[in-house]
Amino acid sequence: MRSIYRRLLDRPAYMFLTACDEPLERQNPRRFARAWVGLMALSIATGLGLVGLWGVGWRFFGDDYGRFVLPAAAAVVFLFAWPMRRSLVCASRLVGGEDPAGRMVIGAMLIVAAWACFLCLKPDWYRAEYAMPGWLAWIRPAAKVYRVLLVMPVWGCWSMLITVQFCRPGDRTEQAMRAFAHGCGPLTAAGCMAVPLAGTFAYFHYLGTGAQWTIPAVTIFVAIFGGFVLSRLGGGLRRSVLLADNLLAQLAFVLTYLAFR
Fold this sequence. Notes:
By secondary structure, the protein is mainly alpha-helical.
């Protein structure tokens, strides 16, 4: 187990998502040219982890007056203590500026916003939808809350891929970031978009055609426009911009879903 964990820590995608700036500077930049593959895999694994954690919390603690207080809290702790910790730090720095108090306020607001979004999620058992064959039913969780948790991290990952298509590397761009942008072209970003887009269409058809199109449309707009704005705040295309945009796109996806639910 220790060997597996050490290998995970050394993987380019995991380092790109969670490591501090100093360890990345010591790495060969070429390692990050295909990091987008690992990032997509990590986003799917994060969604599965959220589902498993939520399911355990739901089983042992249930819900309080229709609100999943403890499962939502566990999901927030899982996200911001592990895969999205660096994203939270980067978003707080970019928006809060140089003032430490401002950074703390922004970070606290993002955590509270994520927890509030999770509190509003519900299984929605009563929602009618088309039947699926038994051998395929396992890919579509009956509890709608699980569907949100599965697709949300993938949209966040895709926002990182699309940002490098609209924001070009500059003088302040890190070498690892340059390699990542060079290795992730327009065809890669377009192809990877099929994963969260297909999940959104398949999982949320019960909300109607308008929701099926609007939820991904808003998420795509926020991912592109948010990356553009964050790059201006950060002084150019940097890893911190991509990580912050990851978090922003995930929140936009959940909020848009809640608006239609």
